[in-house]
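hi! just following up on the protien thing from before. the input was this:
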Amino acid sequence: MIPALEFYTYLTGNPFVAELPERVRRQYVATYQRDYNPKVFDELYSEQLEAIEAGRRLEMAVYAYFRRFTGAPFRKANGDVWRGQIENAERSGPETYLRVEEVEDFLRKGLSTKQSDSTPIKLGDGELSAWELLFLMPKRALGDSKDLGLCDITRYCAVGRMDRQMMTHALATGKSKQSSPCMVQATKIAP
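and the predicted 3d structure came back as:
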């Protein structure tokens, strides 16, 4: 079992779970976008854990996400399923858990858009697996396209192949305006 709040970043890509002052949030975004160093996400993760443990309020997006989440039952630390309204689980935040295999089953059966691209590309003399590609990107991670958003590439669950248009845009960012840090970071660090 993993705390539900940790699953939030894995499922959405959004590393902002606890409310932070806007200046702090802007600083994390600016620091990351300066050189796309993924170590920023470890620092942010640590600060988020400290904020949650200190009782800081969660981002409204987190409450909304888990209010709509029906993929797996919310559980207590002892493994028992939460009974009653989801609001009970939301108020308990750090004491609310999800079982990994139940979430994986939900993603496999009910949310195909969050499945990593794993089907090989057929070639004339064999096939090319996704892991052999030079450019991969987070699949359907929408957080970085919103104001003051980032996609935590170190904690996101689904990886996809870049199509030709997206790859051309990402590689041409030196001459055109960069529109998605998530896309560019994938081109800079993905093997």
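The first helix runs from residue 4 to 12.
The radius of gyration is 18 Å.
cheers
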